[in-house]
Amino acid sequence: MINLTLHRLELAEALSQQERAAVLGWSEIPAFFRRSEPILRQGDAPTRCAILRRGLACRWKMNSDGGRQIVSLHYPGDLLDLQHFLLERADHHISALTSCDLSWVSYEDLQQTVEQYPAVGRALWRYTLAEASVSREWLLNVGRRDALQRVAHLLVELHLRTTDAGMAATDAPTEALTQEDIADATGLTAVHVNRMIQRLRSSKALPERGKLMTTEHLQRLKEFAVFDGAYLHHLTSKRSAVIG
Prior knowledge:
Number of domains: 2
CATH architecture of the largest domain: Sandwich
Protein name: Crp/Fnr family transcriptional regulator
Oligomer: single chain
Keywords: DNA-binding, Transcription, Transcription regulation
InterPro entries: cNMP-bd_dom, cNMP-bd_dom_sf, HTH_CRP, RmlC-like_jellyroll, WH-like_DNA-bd_sf, WH_DNA-bd_sf
Pfam families: cNMP_binding, HTH_Crp_2
GO molecular function, one term: DNA binding
Helix content: 40-55%
């Protein structure tokens, strides 16, 4: 389903009816991946782009001792490997964090659309620039924030992005990822993450297990994270929720 991807592109660039039709006309090959199943492996030379339709996925790197560092999270509508439209080989892995449905779209389709409709090319360019902005924020998160801020910041972003993608808006963000996933995204241990989550719950920044996330929880969580969502640019349409 390209509709959510089209929505993301239109947040980046105004598209005409013809340009919208060109994006919606991309040929899709559906695929299903189970949790933890690889979608792309480092060293692969893909010829098609994966568009996430349902679920959560991540890009990750592995260090010399086999430890995983999650370097980005991805949500329905995201183009998972757009960079290989221009770069030949993958320098990272992409895996499913939950069960995922995705669509394969050939780079040939993308090439033809970009050549015929430059506005679509600009939208894709702006999309990749926004992703780079998120990468810079993640670098700051892992490198300079304390453990509580790291976890809180990631959970705010996760909640905002999943909500914008229509994924269970009232669920706590801790329901979307395991504590091991959060640890690998923040450079902490799972034990340390568990302690931070308990602190956030006791401070009313997260609901108790199985309870619903409220606007009051989200506001408290943002306060712990010292969250400024300007770095998300057009990756979410809920700008008042991001920055408020």
